[in-house]
Amino acid sequence: KKGAAEKLLSESASVTQDNGNQMTTEYSATGTAVGGSIVGVRTARLSHQTTTRGFWRITGEFWDLSCGKKASFSDVCQGVYGKSRDEVSALAAQAIAKCVNAPDSKGSFPDQLTSDNLSETVSDDSRYYGTPDGLVIAIWAGEYGCMAWDAHEIVVIPAAGSSHAAGDDVTAISYSPYS
Q: What's the pTM?
């Protein structure tokens, strides 16, 4: 039962996959226990599109290792973080706004913080994952800043004992000239 989740957690590779206009040259998946048998998985892919500059695409998901199946994000919100899915969306929108508006967020574009843009981002379950810092959401290059601002990983709900607060940028990958 646990084979698929354990296999995913052990993956890390430098590969080249060409699927038309986009080539993925690096891939990694990292898992963190977030509560009970639930594991948050962060996946990072470095992809190139017709240029030499690559962009990170960070995604996440949750797995229940007691049964080896992907966990529903709504269930994880309630069971692990004690919030409804709608509450998590509202907190995520606030966290993104705090990060994008931070004085040291050079390259960000606060004018892109429209309700439509935020709604689309925070309703996408594949952007969330769990870490020792808490529940994190990923925003992608060009969404709330220039392409060079790249992807960012932002704390939505801090874990107990974490030194980070909601809205803190905990980006694990630093490729941007602004970092």
A: 0.78
